[in-house]
Amino acid sequence: MRILLTGITGQVGHHLCPELRARGWDVVAPTRETLDLANPDSIVRTVRCVQPHLIINPAAYTAVDKAESEPGPAMSINGIAPGILAQEAKRLQIPLIHYSTDYVFDGAKRGAGGELIPYLEGDETSPINTYGRTKLAGEEAIYSSGCQHVVLRTSWVYSGFGKNFLLSVLRLAQDRPVLKMVDDQWGAPTWAGWIAEGTVQLIERLSLAGVSGFAASSSSTNPASRLTLNLANSGYTTWYQFANAILAAAADKLPNSKMPLVLPISTAEYPTSAARPINSRLGLELIRNFLTSPIPSWEASLRQCMGKLQL
Predict the structure, then answer these.
(1) Which of 131, 143, 158, 240 does the annotation list as catalytic?
(2) Which of 28, 37, 144, 191 has its CA 20 to 30 A from that of 8?
(3) Does the predicted TM-score (pTM) go above 0.70?
(4) Helix (H/G/I), strand (E/B), else coil: 183
(5) Nearest to 249 by CA among 300, 297, 303, 296
(6) Per-residue pLDDT tens digits of the chain, which is 311 residues long
(7) φ/ψ (deg, to 5) at 120
(8) Which runs of consecutive H residues, i.e. helices, occur in the chain?
(9) Which residues touch 258 (CB under 8 Å, ≥6 apart)?
(10) Is position 143 annotated as part of the catalytic site?
């Protein structure tokens, strides 16, 4: 099977490429110089040159705050490019796997008692920032294309590679005696390595029925090809608690003099250009039907990530 993989320099693409190749699959992973997702002609040319059997698209414009002042570039990569990939997948009659985000929701979901409860795949979307709106536009473009697809919504992605919260905390710990972290936003920190592993399990599970498995497993709301799944680590926490867990896991890697005091603050005390959802929890009941191993907790994946990290 030949796979066209975008975003090789991103966190998920970085982890996915070796996982896919380890299964013996032929992975074509072009760099930005070859595949420019902001250029529709580049997308069409690349797909038609590669002639893949599966397209996987983890590439995205992920600068959440910068997107507020750069809605055009964000929409080109997050909203328009997935639709073009989907059109090409439809033309080739092959599946597309695309990654989306918890930010397509507004974070206001509550239970009957006012408690935060996880978002399910069928819940109404209502993004509160430009990044979320562009990612939702990408989802909708894929849905409307009619191609066979899986949209995977994930949250709070981190790894030992690239730009992310984990590496920011470790960097700040080297320079600041006190760190202030938001303690009223809830979600599941999700290791990019687990996203890659879960994706491979999903491909293998769906391939049991051949390519048609992507359509056969689709939502009844769009029986042609629609399949949307939440894919994240299990459990939930806040940024403040996540920062403390990171530093605890790095205790043997950082000198005592570099272990800062972490203080909890509210969202209101940490203003950003883009609004963030208070509730980013994602329900994982549906994805479990498509995986071949249990979903690890965010704490377990953090330990696994930190065990591979060289500081």
Answers:
(1) 131
(2) 144
(3) yes
(4) coil
(5) 303
(6) 999 999 999 999 999 999 999 999 999 999 999 999 999 999 999 999 999 999 999 999 999 999 999 999 999 999 999 999 999 999 999 999 999 999 999 999 999 999 999 999 999 999 999 999 999 999 999 999 999 999 999 999 999 999 999 999 999 998 899 999 999 999 999 999 999 999 999 999 987 545 445 544 444 344 335 799 999 999 999 999 999 999 999 988 777 667 899 999 999 999 999 999 999 999 999 999 999 999 999 999 999 999 988 76
(7) -100, 165
(8) 11-22, 40-50, 71-75, 81-92, 130-145, 165-175, 192-206, 213-216, 239-249, 298-308
(9) 173, 174
(10) no
What radius of gyration do the chain's Cα atoms show?
19
Strands 96-101 and 228-230: unpaired
Cα gap 226→205, rounded to integer Å:
17
Amino acid at 114: G
Q: Which amino acid is at 117?
A: I
CB burial readout 167-183, b (16+ within 10 A) else e:
bebbeebeeeeebebbb
3-state secondary structure of 179: strand
